[in-house]
Amino acid sequence: MATGPATRAYRDERQEPFGDGYFRAFDDAVVSSLGVGTYLGDPTDAVDDRYASAILTALESGCNVLDTAINYRCQRSERVVGRALAESEIDREAVLVATKGGFVPFDGSRPPDPGQYVIEEYLDTGIVDREDLVAGSHCIAPDYVETQLDRSLENLDLESIDLYYVHNPETQLRERSPETVYDQLEATFTRLEERAAAGDVDQYGVATWEAFRVPPEHSSHLSLVEILERARAASRAAGTDEPHFRAIQLPFNAAMPEAFTVAGQDAADSGSPIPVLRAAADAGVAVFTSASIAQGDLASTLPDAIAERVPGDRPVQQALTFARSAPGVTSSLVGMSRPAHVEENVASGFHDPLEDDAFEALFE
């Protein structure tokens, strides 16, 4: 797993071209404020090869955060991350590897009849209980998540995963009450605490899409305060010294700034509602942002305030600098499936992020 000494050595060897604040603390490790995302792309050998080349380039170029999920590209994204790590000359302990479990994954390619595939491969085999399956594709029950964790370890060919997310738990709210979802998260967190104690996972969290960016009355809303309380209960149940819940993931970009602008989360001191970036910072929880260039929409066109005030040689670099400048952000993830993308994106890190007051001024 990623270690403090190895990640600091990685930083020290590659620090020179980067601006202040490019490398940031995450627990005992030091990580790049840009990370490689692996969501997009067809499940083909050709795309696998491009991702492998991009990941190798990223690791050599100063990007030591790799983010994936078991369902991305029918498990191929996890497997190509493992392949690249095996081929790279970079020390495994210098790299933060994150993955996710929750959505039912296909295996290698999309089956002709996805519904029948889920029935035969997951329901009939008992991997998923029918009552735990939501929208025909999502399950966060502890037994299921544990099977997915084991499969992710196999796909990645790793002995441990640095950061394991429960993937989009708000999906369960389509058919479950919030209290039921929190109860299931607590049970799954307990299982992850046990796996952390066994050394299979270093840290865990939740990766979300809407849950933390919407107001409390929204049907997809989840409370970070409540989730952290459930993690503390899980730690007590598992007998660990302290919760291993250390991070959340959510979208944040110039077109989706709600994590900074929407006061939808309870404050730990029971004060007025606050945005999730502030709530996470107050709780000591790291934030990894996804969709940092809105899946390419911000690669060439930006709002005027960002285009005029955020440093960067190209719009995509400005978009990434905007994302990683938000107070409380540890690393901003961006899909990089070609070495040329890596070179352009990593160059964002040559520029200093905005100071907090300059960032806030963008919204005035």
From TrEMBL:
Assigned GO CC terms? cytosol
Name listed for the protein in its UniProt record: Aldo/keto reductase
Indicate the segments forming the NADP-dependent oxidoreductase domain, all copies: 34-211
Q: Which SUPFAM superfamilies match?
A: NAD(P)-linked oxidoreductase (SSF51430)
Q: In the record, what terms sit under GO molecular function? A: oxidoreductase activity
Q: Which domain of life is it from?
A: Archaea
Q: Which PANTHER family match?
A: GH17980P-RELATED (PTHR42686)
Q: By its UniProt entry, which InterPro entries does this protein fall under?
A: AKR (IPR020471), NAD(P)_OxRdtase_dom_sf (IPR036812), NADP_OxRdtase_dom (IPR023210)
